[in-house]
Write a structure and sequence with these properties.
about 550 residues; alpha/beta; Rossmann fold; 6-stranded mixed beta sheet; about 15% strand; 6-stranded antiparallel beta sheet
Amino acid sequence: MLLRLTVKNFAIIEDLTVEFNKGMTVLTGETGAGKSLIIDTISLLLGSRADSDMIRYGSTSASILGVFSYDKKLDDIFNKYNLPISNEISIYREIFDNSKNTIKINNHSVSLTILKSIASMLADIHVQNDTYKLFDPDKYLSFIDPIEDYKFYKLLGKYTKDLYDYNIVINEYEKIVKGQKTALDRLEYLEYELNEITSLNLYDDIDIELEDKIAKLSNYDKIHSNLSEAYSNLDAILDNLYTGSKALQKIEEYDSLYQQSTEKLFDSYYIIEEIKNDISSQLNDMDFDEEELNLYIEKLNEINKAKDKYKKSVKELIDYAKDISLQIEMTTNYDNILAITKEKCINSFNKLVDSSKNLTDYRKALAKKLEAGIIKECIDLDLENTKFEIAFNNPDYNDPFNKNIFNDNGVDSVDFLISFNKGEPLKKLYKVASGGEMSRIMLAFKSYFAAKSIVSLMVFDEIDTGVSGVTAKKIANKLYNISLSTQVLCITHLPQVAAIGDNHKKIYKILDNDRTFTQINDLDLNQRIEEIAMMLSGDRMSLYALEHAKALLER
């Protein structure tokens, strides 16, 4: 549960610390007082995107610190991210005017992804726009798919892998079908290009090798004369080295330095002799062949022309020839290649269909439980005659080449069908539900999932919009029942909801030195009576409103 919230320089909040208790806490106040700002700060603690526009005017940064109680259920995820475990969880976010922001959990810097992973196990927030999800059938699967369910995610993982494999072969198939006509038109030209490139007998770095050979043959006289001169000089040096070595050898027994010098001279002698022999071999092997030189030059010119023509290096030309060969094979052996790829598609499609059906069957089982749960919740919300069904689409699996039926999360799309009155047929929820009915249906979903969730905090921002009278009382009771097992924070304009809370905080604005500040006060019993009386009567408090407010609180 949320224990404490400290906010600094956020919008019209300058410096505010709020303590929270277990049970149900209601937050009331006039429109624009800053009630939704409190929800925004909690949302930031749970991983919503930060915006520098949130920073209070005149400040360079805004900060939010939330302290939550720790639950042993979080051990695994804290250990996963190497976060220290204590009796409390502190989540800190600071937003800077340069759009940078800092996120820390228990004083350890974390990423937004890690924050979201942990936050999903701490709290659930309903903001006013969430109810509009019920008007969008594309969002309905999110109500069915569980947040934590090993079997579901195993099935989804298998589907994802099979979809990946299928996309590879179907894309290959489409490429072959599309490319065959183009290849037929280009076949003659492709064959010409292939012959032109393969006739060069290319291999890696052949152009560099030819340049080296041409350089040697073009400078034959210079190389030969210098090698000969080097050979003659080394021959003379060797005689002197050998004579000198022998002379030192005769006196090496008289001093270790003579022995070392003798060894060095002999080493030099053998090294130079090896060099001389290498030069001799090179001289013997050297043979100037003008025809050979011309062949090398001609070969290199042909390769350079091909490089210029195709704007490719030798390695790229080799790869391009392989691509051309494949295109020619696809054209000349099209039927065989297409048949092989077609069979791959069908096999991959059948595997994907099995994965899809398994995922759909599991979703349908979850949907049946959800249907029963929502109907039960609706009875408590003054919708006693509600009938609710989740209708699944029927995908056509007859065409193994129709990849459009598969989406990232399966083949399923669903519709919520509902009837609020006896004798009325089921119709699409977003077409028949009023604003007040939508609010109650959303609360029914929240209540159903609260019983199955491990979160310790649920936040509701005016989920009671569009209702009044007896229905308002039933919504209040539903929120209170949720708070018996989960901490509830609820922004409300309904006196029935405000009266049923265990704790009541009033949010209001003050003006000081031409600056606006948001403040929060905990209300005692008499203050609660006055606040609820104002909610009942509007701009003027009456004796009847005070008596009514007192009666609501007593009940």
